[in-house]
Automatic annotation (TrEMBL):
Key words of the record: ATP-binding, Cytoplasm, Kinase, Nucleotide-binding, Transferase
Subcellular location: Cytoplasm
Keyword Chaperone: no
Gene3D superfamilies given in the database record: 3.30.420.40
One Pfam family matching this protein: Acetate_kinase
One Gene Ontology cellular component: cytoplasm
Protein name: Probable butyrate kinase
CDD domains for the chain: ASKHA_NBD_BK (cd24011)
Length: 271
């Protein structure tokens, strides 16, 4: 695992550092370390794995740690167990993931890292395929530049020159119509993905759960998402993230014998 993460063979991401840092603590203090709900948690149902062409495979990459922790908190707020509810969890940070949680499993979710889903503060989300192929072969851009359009320099930051939603909100308050249109387009695309996940859950949705940094924005983002999606289910809001606590609780569940740690199996990542 450590070698694979160092090589970034499956993608560059800050979370690649997690296991490496944990391993240093293990060595220094002679204590166990665990990985809890990493971005590659994969509970997709078989139907969700189809892409539309046999050589492409859908990967489950999303904000699993915060999605799972927030879903548990939301279930508790509903007075139920996570394993007994259906939720659509919308994590809205620099990247955005929309997961269909059916009775404790994330059976469908967009690949939040790799050009799938709504556009986000710093990612393009799904792009028109043929235009993308044409641009790749146009000779105008390098491989790295094209990759950057999808992750890092795409989405809101490319439209408005900032990935900071709070700056955009201030611009809207000051009458910037372009900023309003782009920010609302992002809400519109997120809402469309909520609709998809409602279909996956066959309309049996106990709640739509909004979380991540953008969920603090009640004035615009939360209001627009409520307008578009509240016909599906009640909306619960858990702004920010619960990641550090979720990591600690995951480790504690194993140390207390409430959960068994799984063994990492490298072959599952060979695709
Ligand atoms: N209090 C707030 N009010 C409004 N928007 C906020 C607030 N806090 C953060 N945001 C916005 O949320 C977005 C990023 O959120 P967050 O900090 O959750 O992302 P991240 O942790 O960098 O990314 P990710 O969640 O994808 O790992 C930014 O555009 C930021 O401006
Ligand atoms: C999809 C993994 C978390 C992120 O958005 O970076």
């Amino acid at each position: 695992m450590l070698e694979l993460l160092k090589s970034a063979k499956n993608g560059e991401h800050a979370s690649n550092l997690g296991a490496l840092i944990a391993y240093e603590f293990t060595r220094k203090y002679d204590i166990p370390s665990f990985i809890v709900d990493p971005v590659v948690v994969d509970e997709l149902e078989p139907l969700a794995r189809y892409t539309g062409h046999p050589i492409f495979r859908r990967k489950s990459i999303f904000h699993a740690l915060n999605q799972k922790a927030t879903a548990r908190n939301a279930a508790a707020q509903l007075g139920k167990n996570y394993e007994d509810v259906n939720l659509i969890v919308v994590h809205m940070g620099g990247g955005i993931s929309i997961g269909a949680h059916r009775k404790g499993k994330v059976v469908n979710v967009n690949n939040a890292l790799d050009g799938d889903g709504p556009f986000t503060p710093e990612r393009s989300g799904t792009l028109p395929l043929t235009q993308l192929i044409d641009l790749c072969f146009s000779g105008k851009y390098t491989f790295d530049q094209m990759k950057k359009k999808i992750k890092g320099a795409g989405g809101m930051v490319d439209y408005l020159g900032t990935n900071d939603a709070m700056t955009v909100q201030e611009r809207i308050r000051n009458g910037d119509k372009e900023a309003e249109l782009v920010y609302k387009a992002m809400a519109y695309q997120i809402a469309k993905w909520v609709g998809r996940m409602a279909a996956v859950l066959k309309g049996e949705v106990d709640a739509i759960v909004l979380t991540g940094g953008l969920a603090y924005d009640k004035e615009f983002m939360v209001r627009w998402l409520t307008e578009y999606t509240s016909f599906i289910a009640p909306i619960l809001i858990f702004p920010g993230g619960d990641e550090e606590r979720a990591l600690a609780m995951g480790g504690l569940r194993v140390l207390r014998g409430q959960e068994k740690a799984k063994t990492y199996w490298e072959n599952v990542l060979q695709f």
